[in-house]
Amino acid sequence: MLKYIVKRLALSVLILVAVSLIIYFLVRLMPIDFVASNAGMNSEPETLDKIREQLGLSDNSFVGIIKGYFNWLGNLFEVENGVITLGKSFDGQKPVSQIIRQGIPTSFVVAFIATIFEFLIAIPLGITAATHQYSFRDYLITVLVMVGISLPSFFFGNVFKAIFADLLGWFPVSGGTDASQSTTGIMDVLSSFRYYILPIFTITILSLGGRMRMTRTNMLEVLNSDYIRTARAKGLKESKVVTKHAFRNTLIPLVTTLAGLIPSLFSGAIITERIFGLDGIGTTALTLTNKGDIPFIMGYNMFLATLSVLGILLSDIMYAIVDPRVKLE
Amino acid sequence: MDKKTVLLKATRLDEKGTSATEVIKNEEIKIEANTPSEEENVPLDKNIKLMSPTRMVIRRFFRSKLSVIGLIMVIGLFLFSFAGPILYHVIVPANDVVGSGYKSDVTISENGFDAWYENLMTRGWQQDEKDESGRWENTESEFIVIVDGEEVAIKQTLQKFEKDSTLARPSALHPLGTDKSGYDVLSRLMYGGRVSLIVSFLAVFIITVLGVVAGGIAGYFGGVIDNIIMRICDILMCLPGIPILLIVGVLLNGWISKGYGFISGESRIYYLMIFISCISWPGTARLVRGQILSLREQEYMVAAEAMGYSTFRRIFKHLIPNVMPQLIVQMTLGLGSMIIYESTLSYLGFGVKAPNTAWGTILNLFEEANGFEIAMANPLIWVPAGLCIVIAVLGFNFLGDGLRDALDPKARR
Hints:
A: mainly alpha, MetI-like fold, B: 4-stranded mixed sheet, 13 helices
């Protein structure tokens, strides 16, 4: 097991290097010139060139880009105030890790609560649909869930906003914090909670479908297995068969996907955050990508890639832990 | 018991060597066991309806209501987008269909200047047409100029027509009204559908070709080649989806503004979708590889090898056709997600941009200044576009689900 994990981790590092190379080349191909667009109208070309050289952007040939890549790689693990900087953003020379950390609380709270709701709603729905297969209830749930999967976030988010914020006026239209309050930390998150309600519901409804379908498929598979037939044959109540015998085995894939959820908890929902004006990591990513802030783009994308590599690895390990039949090799 | 229902299993091998087993339903072959001799003389197989695998699939597909609904949705949207504009122009005569432009005409008469803008913005807006939005803007002014030493009084009337046609309420000419730039919403919806549908078909086609080739080679040869292809898949699967697309979107925007010849605002979405296809084939490749790994061990593949067929022929004529069912399902479901990708990009302003249009572009209204207020006041502009996206994705998902059940030989229903 340990050998397997070490091997996988080594492979993950290789994958991440390849991913970072791809992203770096893409970013450097961007003709958006951060220096020129941020320096102001009056700057002289020589000054611009100097700044470019300082940031390592002056040479756009293949060798120059490779050099820039290693430069970036070198800055990645620089330590400032005891924290790894992940490079310094062009925008104000702030450490990228700090920018990412600023956005994460908002994104995390929204994603975390949405995930809890998702599980609380999707699992019972999936089980009912499976135990009443091909009934009216099954069809109704399937159709509703399909509609949920098919809704594009930008349309649904705006409809939600139009109805609940504009028409009914129950929630604020957009924004993340009350200007009147100046609390910090956890209190800050609590005080701005009513801004989070609509985004949370949007994300929940959009992700409900996948989870419910998964539960239903697994439950059906378990319900068709022999030991369930035995349980029924020995005269157990149906409710007991479902809740005690079948449901426990349905948990295996559900627990496994928990690890796979890690990336989505931290990565931020770019479009939902933008629609509801939350200042999470997604909104930051959108603005800074548009500006062409190379260190941030690299740092953010590598952050996401690392999370997803870890997510896949963790879910494989979880699978082996939860299901004794699975052996990792 | 005078009637016995006999269940018969009909197995048939077709030319391709695939076998299909179908338990024919009770009502089709009720053989009455104790009826007199004339029935017994009839050979048994006269009572059995043999069905080709294709017919069985079609039968099973149409048995499910949801898949039929999905089919209707998809066909309806295709008709709406491709045949719709043709019909629409017959019903409502149009000057200029997608053309946009402004003609400012200034004539000098003896009384002075009469200036007006002749509006050719969209279809159906004639000079003498009445304004539906109540947004006329007439400016009259008088001033005196000296021409050849003589004072001439000039009366100038400026009628700004460009505001007249924008954000109009629904009328007979414009069933859904017009949008912020004066375009007819319904015809934009139709043309937008063309772009959205074509683009997602293109993307799914590329994904399938790449996935089948990569997966086929990996699964058939195994070993080092398999390892290399699978590691490439791992790398591509770790690329963060939307953020990467943002980067490429910004990149293409920059290239357009720098004026690189081969790319324009109109063709940008195609390049973007090709890029999406190039990073999203691993899913298909894995599916094909997994299938081929199990299929290549089967007897008919040994037979194919014994017959001395070439590797190419063995992969693409004998293995791939057996992966087709799963592939078709994957493609149908992929169409839905590609439409979402395309419209998300257009919504963010990286995809199709005005004056060209796609469904997502119409919803881009929200991203503009005061967009939310305009959208709230004129829901008819954006709600139909959003509904079109939902219907398209839903239709493809229903279709894919239905096909999955219909193509699964183990399914009983």
